[in-house]
Structure formats: C-alpha cells, structure tokens
Design a protein that fits this description.
Shape: rod-shaped
Structural class: mainly alpha
Number of helices: 3
Strand content: under 5%
Radius of gyration: 33 Å
C-alpha cells in the first residue's frame, strides 16, 4: 500500500517547474526578451527585403515585356526580308 502511494506521488510530480525555474531569474528573462526582439527585427528586415525584391522583379518583368514587344517585329521583318 505504501509503495502504491509512493508511485502515485511520483506520478503527480510535474517535471515542468523543475525545468523552467531558471527562467524566473531576471538574466534569463532579459535573454529571452532580447532573442524575441532580434527575431522581430530579423522578420521585419526579411519582409522589407522580400517586398523590395518583388517590386524590382515586377518592374524588370514589365521592362522585359517592352523589350520583347520591340524585338519581335524587327525579328519578323528580318525573316521576311530573308525569304523575299
């Protein structure tokens, strides 16, 4: 009976407070907040960089479309002159 009581007591003990007690110290909390801040800054930088890249790529796409529309007629004219 006493061994069963010990097992129940052992099962009721939660290991989580033992693992997270070191987070109660102010240094660990500051460390976590600094990591969170750095992650937010990195996310902001990645987002702005991706927005810049998408804007530049869309402008490049429109420029390539303009160049393509100019190139095709001259290419067709050259082909026509070659066949005639």
């Amino acid at each position: 009976s006493s061994s069963a009581r010990r097992m129940i007591h052992r099962n009721n003990e939660s290991p989580v407070p033992l693992k997270w007690t070191h987070l109660r110290s102010p240094n660990a909390r500051e460390f976590l907040y600094s990591i969170l801040f750095l992650l937010l800054v990195a996310g902001y930088l990645v987002r702005t960089h991706l927005l810049f890249i998408s804007r530049v790529s869309s402008e490049l796409q429109t420029e390539l479309e303009k160049i393509k529309s100019l190139m095709i007629p001259s290419y067709m004219i050259e082909l026509r002159n070659f066949w005639i």
